[in-house]
Task: inverse folding
């Protein structure tokens, strides 16, 4: 049995924060391609969110890193070392699972101390460490409670403490908030981020919730069909998406039909706009615009008609319909939106800035 | 509405009473038969049990057979069921069918098959080390061949009990969490899955014990004398004593059931006491 080599004297931070690299990672499940040549680097000490729709391969990538799945080809490197042949229990990666994964027969303290027990740390020492970690996650008074006596949020905090107990080089979070109610999710989101920053631990966070990813992560990697679409800081991802998929997946986008101009731009709503990025070579085109970039004003002659309004607090999101049936969303200050009741005509304009253009989707039969 | 509820209560009471009578009357009659004497009431049938020839031997043999059967059965079934649940969920229906199969094979047919094998073995394996194996499994002191038969017979019962226990636990996530905490495969299963199957393991063990305590056909045909066979043989000569033993074996089964329930209750108390 191995003996404990961890620095246990009240030090919760990992000894080193690792760099994680996925290189041309491929994984096939029967006819389904989960990962199709994923290339991604997680920098030391950063929180990187893997974001994407269901089946995009984000959880598969995380599970491969944890050692619970194998990959068909490619490499997974931690600090430059290929860990493909390292078994899961020796990977030095703490993980918090989507479903509550606490051991039901153990108390909260014993759950946190489980990893230390596996490493042969003495009982007194591991209980002292467990208490320390429970204090770190704000639950020192729950040490003697069993999982069924804890709320969902408390269970995930204990799971986080358990994942941190072995001072791992990498922290893996597999949608840890998805089973919680909205209020608890928000509180725990902040708690996880605070701890991650305090400890400076390299963290890979899988989520399908864009708001969660944008609010917590240093960088967000958007995956689609097993490939990386874009990896950037949240603000850049939102304001400068490089593909239509990223633009529509992160935040809200409206599509407006447009035509090419001779100078390589596009004409939309009667005005010419420069193009952000590449212009598709052929086919009908759409311009993608965010609701906060669409300006609306009351206009007796239209051409748009307000068809829906959603109160979001400081702003109200109005949906207007153009004569060709296209619907466009626009965020207005709530006071300004009051001047545009349902059914009222409005004029809309786009800002003078480069716009993202995508090929118009083929109509479904 | 109130009238309907009170009428339902009457019916419920009547059904309970009838069910109670159905079970209690034969038992009361058995108890009465075992203590009824020409001079009034006598407990001779019970007090004479310990000194009755074969009683202790057959009871000890049965309990030993039951213990070994439980151990073999759990050692076979628990790892198989956990492995299927974690790594090969497509094999679950196959395992279920295999484990349920003994239900549709009558003990007589199973025993006939066993006899066939036991006869075939020595004839064909005389010059091989397997011959001694055939002799060994049939020794009268501890007939391992009965363990083989009992394991097969208890498979459906144990499988059901363990399956319901495994359904209540997210085995895959627990094992992955344990491995993530530094436990290898065997340790993950032993320290995390098995403790959470305590109730299911106890149920499987109890059902197997009950089956072995009452099994008559196979042991009788193969010519061994565990408890059930002994009761039958005593019944031919000493009717009162055989009924007394039956009543006692029923009580033993109930006591075991109560112990099982108490173990489960104690665990619940232990966990709620800390809240």
Result:
């Amino acid at each position: 049995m191995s003996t404990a080599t961890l620095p246990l004297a009240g030090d919760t931070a990992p000894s080193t924060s690792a760099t994680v690299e996925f290189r041309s990672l491929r994984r096939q499940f029967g006819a389904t391609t989960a990962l199709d040549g994923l290339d991604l680097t997680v920098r030391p000490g950063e929180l990187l969110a893997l974001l994407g729709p269901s089946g995009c391969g984000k959880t598969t990538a995380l599970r491969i890193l944890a050692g619970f799945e194998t990959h068909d080809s490619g490499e997974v490197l931690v600090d430059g070392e290929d860990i493909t042949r390292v078994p899961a229990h020796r990977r030095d990666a703490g993980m918090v699972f989507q479903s509550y994964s606490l051991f039901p027969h153990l108390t909260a303290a014993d759950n946190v101390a489980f990893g230390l027990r596996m490493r042969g740390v003495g009982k007194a020492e591991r209980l002292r460490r467990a208490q320390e970690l429970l204090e770190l996650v704000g639950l020192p008074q729950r040490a003697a409670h069993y999982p069924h006596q804890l709320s969902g949020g408390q269970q995930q905090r204990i799971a986080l403490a358990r994942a941190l107990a072995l001072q791992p080089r990498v922290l893996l979070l597999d949608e840890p908030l998805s089973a919680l109610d909205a209020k608890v999710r928000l509180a725990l989101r902040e708690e996880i981020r605070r701890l991650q920053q305090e400890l400076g631990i390299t963290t890979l966070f899988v989520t399908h919730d864009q708001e969660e990813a944008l609010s917590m992560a240093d960088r967000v990697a958007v995956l689609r069909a097993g490939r990386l679409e874009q990896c950037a800081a949240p603000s850049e991802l939102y304001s400068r998406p490089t593909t239509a998929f990223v633009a529509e997946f992160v935040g809200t986008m409206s599509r407006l039909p447009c035509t090419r101009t001779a100078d390589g731009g596009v004409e939309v709503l009667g005005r010419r706009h420069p193009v952000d990025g590449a212009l598709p070579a052929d086919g009908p085109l759409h311009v993608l615009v965010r609701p906060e970039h669409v300006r609306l004003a009351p206009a007796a002659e239209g051409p748009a008609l307000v068809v829906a309004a959603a109160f979001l607090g400081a702003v109200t999101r109005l949906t207007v319909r153009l004569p060709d049936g296209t619907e466009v969303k626009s965020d207005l200050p709530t006071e300004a939106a009051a001047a545009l009741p349902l059914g009222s005509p409005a004029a809309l304009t786009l800002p003078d800035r480069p716009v993202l253009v995508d090929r118009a989707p083929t109509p479904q039969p | 509405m109130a009238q309907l509820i009170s009428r339902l209560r009457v019916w419920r009471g009547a059904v309970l009473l009838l069910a109670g009578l159905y079970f209690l009357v034969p038992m009361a009659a058995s108890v009465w038969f075992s203590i009824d004497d020409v001079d009034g009431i006598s407990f001779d049938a019970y007090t004479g049990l310990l000194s009755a020839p074969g009683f202790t031997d057959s009871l000890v043999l049965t309990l030993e057979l039951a213990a070994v059967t439980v151990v073999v059965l759990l050692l076979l079934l628990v790892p198989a069921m956990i492995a299927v649940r974690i790594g090969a969920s497509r094999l679950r229906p196959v395992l279920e069918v295999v484990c349920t199969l003994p239900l549709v094979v009558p003990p007589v047919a199973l025993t006939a098959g066993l006899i066939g094998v036991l006869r075939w073995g020595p004839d064909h394996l005389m010059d091989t080390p397997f011959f001694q194996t055939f002799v060994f499994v049939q020794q009268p002191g501890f007939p391992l061949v009965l363990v083989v038969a009992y394991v097969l017979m208890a498979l459906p019962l144990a499988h059901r009990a363990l399956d319901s226990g495994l359904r209540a636990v997210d085995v895959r996530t627990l094992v992955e969490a344990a491995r993530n905490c530094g436990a290898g495969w065997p340790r993950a299963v032993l320290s995390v899955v098995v403790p959470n199957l305590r109730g299911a393991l106890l149920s499987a063990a109890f059902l197997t014990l009950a089956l072995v305590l009452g099994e008559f056909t196979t042991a009788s045909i193969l010519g061994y004398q565990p408890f059930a066979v002994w009761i039958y043989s005593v019944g031919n000569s000493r009717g009162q004593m055989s009924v007394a033993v039956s009543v006692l074996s029923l009580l033993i089964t109930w006591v075991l059931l109560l112990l099982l329930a108490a173990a489960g209750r104690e665990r619940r108390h232990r966990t709620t006491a800390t809240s």
DSSP finds nine helices and 21 strands in chain A. Chain A has a mean pLDDT of 88. Residues 8 and 129 of chain A are 7 Å apart (CA to CA). The interface with chain B takes residues 66-68, 87-91, 93-95, 97, 99, 101-105, 107, 114-115, 118-119, 144-146, 148-149, 159, 162-163, 165-166 of chain A (CB under 8 Å).
